[in-house]
Design brief:
Elements: E1 18-24, E2 30-37, E3 56-63, E4 74-84, E5 86-92, E6 98-105, E7 121-126, E8 137-145, E9 163-165, E10 172-174, E11 184-185, E12 194-195
Length: 196
């Protein structure tokens, strides 16, 4: 209720500009959205964890932008260090004896170890490819039987009509088709069975 002349003065509060800061993970997932006064700092959310994949293990490295003095709307994205995963290649002989064990980065290959000699057999290669390794593997040496020469008494081995008389009395021979494997023979008048 005005009872006399008076002067009224307007009062103002200074408006402060504000900006939006969005923190995102590597895949675009929003981790935090903040409204920050101009020139102020945003507060980073808890460091995210990125699940490893077949090729890499990821470690959080930091953020891709500075947000210590915000002067506009910004999106800040998490960055990671990628460490290649390593796998074990184990080389074994035909009987399971370990020949070598090598650690290999994902997608890379390794050199095979020297293969020991195996009497009566010829090395033919390995049973798995190890030129681009993507998991732990065991690689086994492969062999085929070498030419086997059998001498002695074949009386217990084949029918008589398959045998051929030798030049010396009592010596006979026979031709056999053999599959890869281990064979045993016994020389005439010797009791011990011998392996190839």
């Amino acid at each position: 209720k005005v009872m006399e002349d008076m002067t009224v003065t307007a009062t103002y509060v200074e408006a402060t500009e504000e900006y939006t800061v969005i923190f995102k993970d590597h895949d675009g997932t929003v981790l935090s959205t903040q409204t920050v006064p101009a020139g102020s700092s945003a507060t980073a959310p808890e460091a995210p964890a990125r699940e490893s994949d077949d090729q890499f293990t990821y470690t959080f490295k930091g953020w891709d932008k500075d947000f210590s003095r915000v002067v506009g709307d910004i999106t800040v994205t998490a960055e990671y260090t990628a460490t290649p995963n390593k796998f074990t290649v184990t080389f074994v002989d035909y009987d399971g004896t370990e020949l070598a064990k090598v650690e290999v980065e994902y997608g890379k290959g390794t050199e095979a170890p020297e293969v020991p000699e195996r009497t009566g057999f010829v090395f033919t290669g390995w049973d798995k490819d190890f030129s681009a390794v993507t998991e732990d593997i065991t690689v086994t040496a492969q062999y085929k039987a070498a030419n086997i020469h059998l001498m002695g008494s074949f009386n217990e081995w084949a029918e008589t009509d398959l045998m051929t008389e030798g030049e010396e009395e009592g010596i006979v021979s026979v031709t056999l088709t053999l599959e890869a494997g281990t064979y045993y023979f016994k020389v005439k008048d010797v009791d011990t069975w011998l392996g190839n």
